[in-house]
Fold:
Amino acid sequence: MRTLIANFKMNLTPSETKDYLMAFLSRFDGSKIDLTLCLPYTSLGLGALLCKNRNVRLGAQNLSDEEQGKNTGEISGAMLKDSGVDYVIIGHSERRKKFKEDTKTINKKIKVALKNGLGVILCVGESLTERNTLKTFEVLREQIECALKGLYENELERVIIAYEPIWAIGSGKTPTKNEIEGAVKEIRHIIKDDFSENASISIKVVYGGSIDSKNIKQFLSAKKLDGFLVGGACLDPNEFLKISSLCS
Ligand code: PGA
Structure:
C-alpha cells in the first residue's frame, strides 16, 4: 500500500477545512492507500472529528522541541497527540530556512515527537547549488545522521523520510525518475550504515516536490519508493482525489 502525505502548509481556515474535507472524504477510498493529511493547527480538531473512521491519518506540520511550559506560541507533542494527531512533519526546508531550524533542533523535535507517541515525517533534501556541485548524497547523509542521532532502531518504524529537493518545492520542477531512485537508494544506504539492513529495507521513503496528477504517473514505478508528499496540488480536492486514486 502506498503512503501519501498532504502538506497544507499555511492554507485553509477551519471553515475552509470543513468544506474541503466534506468534498474530499465523500469521494475518497481509504482502503487502498495510507493517507496522512497534515493540516494547520487550527484545523486539527475539526480534522480529527471528520477523519474519524475514514482510514485517514491526521498530521501536524511542526511541534516544539520542548515538552511544555514557557514557550509562548508553541505547540507541544502532548497537545498534538491529544488532538488526535498521528504524524508530524519535522525538518521541512521552509522551517529550516525561514525559522532557522538547525539539525540539533530537528533531532530534539524528533525525540519529543516519538516520546509523545507521534510518528515523524522527516524532510531532507539538497539546494540547487548543492545539486549542481554534486553534493546531494553528502547533504542527505548529514541531514539524516544528525536528525536520527540517538534513536533506537525500533523507533524507525514510526519515521517516514521524505526526500524533498529544495529546488523542486513549489517550483513546478522535479528530478527525473532515475534521480529520485538514486536518492532513495542513498537514503536506504545511510540507514543501513547507521542502523541495520533490516531497517534500511523497512523504513518508509517518499518523494515530495511539485507532485501533481500529471507528473506523478512517471514516478509511480520508481524503485523502493513508498509514496509521495504533496504540497500545492493537495489544495484542490478534485486534483488531490485524482492523485490519491493514481496512487491506490
Ligand atoms: P509542493 O510542496 O508539492 O507544493 O512542491 C511540497 C512540500 O513543500 O512539502
Notes: The CA atoms of residues 10 and 28 lie 23 Å apart. Residues 7, 164, 169-170, 208-211, 229-233 surround 2-phosphoglycolic acid (CB under 6 Å). The mean pLDDT is 97. The beta strands are 2-7, 33-38, 56-60, 87-90, 119-124, 159-163, 204-208, 227-230.
